[in-house]
Amino acid sequence: MFYGGSREAFAEHGEALSAVAGAVFVGEDAGLADLYDVALLSAMNGVFAGVAHAFALVRDEDVPLGDFASLLSDWLTTMVGVVHTSAERLESGDHTTGVVSNLAMQARGGRTLLRTAEEQGVSTALLAPYAELMERRVAQGHGDEDGTGIIGLLAVP
């Protein structure tokens, strides 16, 4: 449970708030609790979309779905580390140091993902918007970055 508001009130009542489901103080702005919740749910929806797309790609093939689920779970667990790296890059503003998989390569790979989906008879609706953002960022001259630079493209003017 996220708590936003008076730090003093949280210090006084945090233990009681944590009795049901751990409470985390997120700041003195009460609206931050809701924002944290929506942000985490947004990430969850993105993961669910990726999982749905992955299963859609393999479901009509001779693929044991339980075995594939194990591979997918292990892969997603490995990818979780990107969360901390993304935060560090966003805080520093440096999207290029130590990049392992640059955006130009990811954009090319995105084209392969879209083409493969089409070949498998799977809609690209879940992947196409992200692929378009990668292509746009590369076209702006940022192909040497990692994907965190895309976040700036999500701001609504």
UniProtKB/TrEMBL annotation:
Domain NADPH-dependent reductive aminase-like C-terminal residue range list:
29-154
N-terminal signal peptide: none
List the InterPro entries. 6-PGluconate_DH-like_C_sf, 6PGD_dom2, RedAm-like_C
User: What Gene3D superfamilies does its record include?
Assistant: N-(1-d-carboxylethyl)-l-norvaline Dehydrogenase, domain 2 (1.10.1040.10)
| Listed Pfam families | RedAm-like_C
Q: What is this protein called?
A: 3-hydroxyisobutyrate dehydrogenase-like beta-hydroxyacid dehydrogenase
Q: Which organism is it from?
A: Nocardiopsis sinuspersici
